[in-house]
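Sample entry (333 residues):
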Amino acid sequence: MKKSFRLISALCILISLAMVATGCKSSEKPDISKNPNTQQSDIKKSEGDTPKTTDESPAKVQEGFQYKVKTDGTSILKINTGKTEWLRVYKDWVYYTDVNDGGKLYKIKSDGSSRIKLNEVKNEWLNIVGDWVYYTNVSDGGKLYKTKVDGSAHLKIGEYACEWLNIVGDWAYFANPNDGGKLYKAKLDGSGIIKLNDVKSEWIKVVGDSIYYANINDGGKIYKIGTDGNKILKINEAKSAWLNIAGEWAYFSNADDGGKLYKVKLDGTVLLKISDVNLEWGNILGEWIYFVNANDGGKIYKVKLDGSSLIKLNDVKSEWVYPSADWVFYTAN
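Predicted structure, serialized as tokens:
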């Protein structure tokens, strides 16, 4: 009996060893998250989850690509892999020019889906109003054109060249590079072109019945003029850039003070320094101004319009900053 028991025990051991050597199939699913040969893209595909946007660390950010960051800085997402300029956001679309495709006009959904080419020319100075994108056609000497937002129609508006373009109501306001950068306006049907001043004008902003601009003939100081060309008024005495208008104030980067952020009353009566940051690419949304801080490697910050609550939003050099709703869109540089 003992001999038979030892024989049966030995046989069981041999069978167990054979099973270990050949590998036993289990009813449990393998843990693919621990399998070094399983790619993350394969995992997402098997789950049916292929997001259009992904969180990006500074190490992964690529120059020229288009990103967005939450206005509270909590999330950074890549939405486009083309090198982009002239970024604008309108409704749920981001409009931009693709440097890798000769500056042609594109739009892409703000979640990174549905990328669409809208025209076949080099574009600058984009304005989106209603169903049209207005722009200067560099391929035709910088003349003013418009393209339907779906790309279905393209029209030349005038034979004049434009820079610092503002589309307001039925008029285009711009600096004419063929006339020394002087300020003009023209009807959007191509009629009625009118010269408004006799100085080189930059950083043009049209608000209500007034046009604000930096007078380059007077050291870049801010002036305002009526949309009819009357009532010219100097507002400040500083070389100014990145001009924004909000409420009763003009916000600007003061080049005479290291590019620091200032504001001045629109009637020129009060001048205040808001922050010691060196501001570039500034744009106002609500009670905040979003900008690139040249003192911190071109990273995006925001600060309240009264100068309080300075907050960093990202950690990469950025440009073409455009705040919209809960996101700040930008191009990594």
